[in-house]
Amino acid sequence: MLRGIRTEQELQNLISSYVSTGRQVPGFNPVSYPKGDPRARYLIDLASSLHPGLGGAVLPGLSTLPHASEGLHPRIDVGLVCLVMGLGLPRGAASALWMIGRSAGWAAHAIEQRLAGFTMRPRAKYMSPV
User: Fold this and answer.
1) Domains and CATH numbers, the chain
2) Closest Cα to residue 53, out of 114, 13, 90, 7?
3) How far is CA 85 from the centre of its chain?
4) Which has the least CB within 10 A, 10, 20, 39, 95?
5) C-alpha distance across the termini of the chain, in Å
């Protein structure tokens, strides 16, 4: 979605088209971070500093535009895409970075649960089929 955007106005138009039709804007409003994912903000700022001219005003626009215009907050995936673009990495690299980070997190969580001896942070209650 972001690779085709060249100006802050194009980004604004894209976001507005989603919002006006009631659709969820891909990559925004993380459930776990209602005020925005601080990791995303950090990665967007880092990407902007690595490659200030990337895509016209898109990266700087991402750090301020969603708050100002639509009340949207970027998720980690938007931050990773910006970082990948800023580093000039190939398509798919953001997904790879996300999966590597997620795998490390899951492994750490499994180790933590094993050491604690109980299941931590269950998200659902098991209901027996009987």
Assistant:
1) 8-89 (1.10.230.10)
2) 7
3) 14
4) 20
5) 46
pLDDT tens profile 56-84: 445 655 655 555 455 788 889 888 988 88
Structure tokens at 114: 């094993």
Give the chain's mean pLDDT.
80
DSSP 3-state of 76: helix
- Return the residue matching tokens 């955007």: 5
- pLDDT above 90 covers what percent of the chain? 21
**Nearest 5°: CA angle at 102, between 39 and 122?**
100
In degrees, to the nearest 5, what angle opens at C-alpha 20 toward C-alphas 14 and 25?
A: 50
Distance CA 86, CA 114 (A): 39
